[in-house]
User: Fold this.
Amino acid sequence: MFDPRITVLEHRLSQVNNIFAVSSGKGGVGKSVIASVLALILARKGFKVGLMDLDFTSPSTHLILGVKDIFPKEKEGIVPPTVYGIKFMSIVYFSKDKALSLRGQDFSDSFLEILAITRWGNLDYLILDMPPGINDATLDVVRFMKRVKFIIVTTPSLLSFSTVKKLLDSLHTSKVEVLGIIENMKIENSSSIREHVKGTRFLGEIPFDPQLEKCFGEVRELLSTEISRKLEKIVDKIIYQNV
Amino acid sequence: MHEWALAEAIIYTVTEIAEREGFREILSVNVKVGELQQVDLETIKFALTQLKRGKLEKAEFKVETVKAKLKCRICGEIWDFDKDKLDEEVAEAIHFVPEVAHSFIKCPKCSAQDFEFMEGRRMYIESVGGIR
Assistant:
């Protein structure tokens, strides 16, 4: 028995130059906001960008971007709709934003199915919004997307950072490239996480913004936040490696 | 034409099998398609004949549907997938990504959404024959 989805996946991603997975050890650290804003900033810089929400059971990038009432176009597969200059793919097109509980194999089958039929075309960057932890999504991305590079998000909490260390260990063991760590939701001016980061690039800090919630669904406002300004500097560090 | 993408996946995979297993020519390919995917067999067969080339030029593609059976993990009930009980939009969503059935289908006995696909979930290539 041969699974045709596995072979075709590589072909579907053959015109994608860079794949970045935004990941963390714990939930609630701001991965989805960072993944969404990262995609918006790259698109604003003129790059061809795709964003895929891989948090199938708790997707949220569609809410951050204010995406509703759209569906991929069927053309020899499915073509992700373009929103704010980003080719956007999410399971919510199919689950209709209803509760979706998936066990391990169900996640992998959904992952393979969507990637087997999605025509991204030519992209400079495909951003993956990962679910938290070292789970099916992490394992499948590492297994099936050999060129993936990870951007790790933590909060200043050592609880968050302790789970990030496990994620980093796992990625290093699998010989997966990690672009660096972002410390998100920084409340006070301490340098605790930066001091603890060893062997991985510290990309920068992003302050906690109590007003952020009001910007969800409003892309222009989202791009004018301090979070976006800080992230823009981080993006420059990532894409122009030595900045 | 989501079927076109699936047909391409079959062609890529059979081409890879032919190379890996030293076939000079592929003459037969047996494909099973899960009922949950609700694939249009005529469309996929047409796409396969349009896409086959090289070592697959003479290949005959047999594409068959496998009935979908679901089993509740809570009460053990086994039931058949029935597309006619779903509204069109839901059936279409399941056609693209069968796992979203977990958002719309419930066990007919206990209403749980924790069920497994016993068979008839996905497409696979059952066998490939040809000249080595």
